[in-house]
Structures are given as structure tokens and as C-alpha cells.
Specification:
Blueprint (H helix, E strand, L loop, with lengths): L1 H20 L1 E7 L3 E12 L14 E12 L3 E2 L2 E2 L2 H19 L5 E6 L5 E10 L7 H9 L10 E13 L2 E4 L9 E12 H13 L3 E7 H9 L2 H6 L1 E6 L4 E7 L2 E8 L3 H12 L3 H11 L12 E3 L7 H4 L2 E3 H26 L8 E5 L8 H9 L3 E3 L18 H11 L23 H8 L1
Helix pairs in contact: 2-4, 5-12, 7-8, 7-10, 10-11
Amino acid sequence: MTDLYQSQRAMRNMRRAAMQRGVVAVLDVGTSKIACLVLRVENLAEDREDGLGSLAGQAQFRVIGAATTRSRGVRFGEIDAMQETERAIRTAVQAAQKMAQVRVDHVIACLSGARPRSYGLAGEVQLAEGQVAESDVARVLAACDVPDFGQGREVLHAHPVNFAIDHRSGLGDPRGHVGNRLSADMHLLTIDTVAVRNLLHCIKRCDLEIAGIASSAYAAGLASLVEDEQELGAACIDMGGGSTGVSIFIKKHMIFADAVRLGGVHVSSDIAKGLRVPLATAERIKTFYGGVMATGMDDREMIEIGANCGDWEKDRKRVSRTALIGIMRPRVEEILEEVRAILDAAGFEQLPSQQIVLTGGASQIPGLDGLAARILGQNVRLGRPLRVQGLPQAATGAGFASTVGLCLFAAHPQDEWWDFPIPAERYPARSLRRAAKWFKDNW
């Protein structure tokens, strides 16, 4: 844990240095695309008034460069072929730098997949002075029982999400409050070490410094959920190419995250197998004619498959839209059923508001919101990322939710455990307590 604490602090310091230099890039390494945005930081506020940590924080930014390239060498949101991914990252970063007309040394990256797992932790300390100081906040976070999450796992996020003094709970910032006992709840997200190390290695090979790393599910939630949804409780379902991220927010904090290792690429693969066409053709058919809700009209709507194999009969093969929907719907239902199982395991029905927001490139399949409402519950809407200054029109769609969320993560970081000067001898002890039970008990 000590090494992790030091490496995350080093990354935060790098991020602060990059923000002070005025330019930083964000990089979304996905299964179907790699997107890079270059941000110009316009005025970095030195003091944080709304947060806790020692991190100098809020910044206003403008997007001055943007580029997207087809992803190569990434499966299920994790790097599969290092050299191909490295080439794709270089292509995206160089194109964004060219548009911005500025060189970028530091990037903040996000990754999906990597088998995320959430834990809810609790800690409690007695207050010596009777009034909460920053050192007391550090002590209570150090007192949280960290679970033994096993070999080959690494902590990606560790957010303090709730503070209580004596019997007063729900405090966002306890500093200055008077009481005898301070307790804290913390959300810890762990991922596979191999997946994150491969990404860091790949970025380093592109001659870039890593100034931060985030979960795609978290970034997509930041960009797609409006303020009320983040406050009252909502789930963001980020349907990407190779994986579908699930994040749950309440009181403006992420309290749970998980991922399904299925996405839009698997729908295209089913079409390719079902219609016996190349994957590129299947992707085109899905984009132009796809859907999940069939009507009487769809029997009569014939789709030219337009294969290119040289056989005149086969090249002019046609299929009804109903047949296409029949291929797509079972896979989409499977993804949504797995998401439903994750939400049930997380205790989502305990939240005061059960709003569900669908985002990500695969969420744009026509009729998906209606199907999701049947499987996930009635409060379903399609989400697009919030508008940020300078963002090109091409990058405002649902497919760019985690990319835009990464900009917000860079400019408005939430406090994390490593933002506090925790004494070395007080690194957390180990015992297990799962997030699902924790937020059922606490909210």
C-alpha cells in the first residue's frame, strides 16, 4: 500500500505541474477508438474551497486540439497487442497536438474493463482537540480497514464519500466542526494490475508522462449525469465497444463501479457471423440499419448487404430488417441482463432515486432506451456528455462521454485518500467489507 500511496501522490504532483504549465492532454484508450483532447488551462485556482484535500485544484479549461483514431490491439477495454496500441496512441496524440499547435508532455488517461471491484470502507477516530483539523481527516482515512483484495490487484480510486461527527452524518467537509468522534466512509475501487501497468507502459513508450489515471465508468458518470442525478442517486451505464461500464453516484460521489466484458463490438461480431459478412460490413449495417425493437414495417424493409467477394449472386444478397434485429436483440438483452445483475448486487434499489442513464457509443442503437426500460426499470434516459468549451461538434456524442468526463476529472479532481499526508506508520490495516452492504447500511 505504501508504494501505491507514493506513486499516486507522484502522479497527482505531475498533474499539478502540468496544469500550472497550462497544457495537458486527456487520452481515452477504448476498444473501438482512441480519442485524445488537448486542454488549455485558463485559470488555475490555488485554493480549494469546496473540497478537502491538499490538492490545488479547480481549473477552467478550453479544448484546443482533438483527434480520434481507430483503436488497434485493444480487447475488452484492455491492451492486447502493445505495439499496435502504441502506434494508435501516437497517431491520436500527434494529430491532436497538430490541431492545437502545441507540444504535450503530460497525459491523463482512462481505461475500461480491467475487472473493477468496489469496496466500502469505514474508519473512526477520537478527536483530541475537540475540533476537526486536516490532520484528523488524514487520521480517520488511515483508520479505514482496507480489504485484502489479493495479489495482482491495484487501487485506482479511493474517495472519502461521507463524514460523520458524533451522530451528525452526511458531512462533506468536517474541518472546523466540533465534536468528540470523527468517522468516515470511503469508496475503494481496485482493478487488475496487469491491465493498468500495460497501459502505463504503452503511454511511456510514446514519450509521454502519465499525470493521472481514471476508470472510464467514473469519467462517463461525471460527464453524463446532471447535478441532481449525481446528488440524489443514479447509475451511468457506459456502453463501449469491448466492455460496458457501470457506475453508481450519490451525494456527488461515485460509490460503486463494475464492468461487463461485452459491448458494441460483440453485437457487430454477431451480425458478421449471422449474415456471413466481414466485420467492417457488419459494423456499417449495424450503424445504418440496426435496432432492437421490430415493427410490422421491418419485414418489408430489405437491406442490401453489398458483399464484395466477386460472386454476383452473393454480392447482391438482401436481408430484412426484422432478421437483422433478430440477430442484434439477443446480444443487447444479454448485456442489459448482466448490468441488471450488477445493479441488484450493488443494492441500487436502496437509493432514493433510481435514475439510469445510458451513454457510450453502443447506446445509440435505435430502440435501446425502450428495451433498457423493460429490463432495468422505468427511469431510463439516453445521456450525452456535458458541453465543454472548445469541444468540436464531432466529439459531442454519447461515444465521447468518458473522454469529456476525463477533462472534468482533470480540471475538477475529487479528493482521494492519497491527497492527505497520512503518516507512514498509519497505512490502513486489512479487513473485508463489500460496497453493496456498506451503502445499503449508510444511505
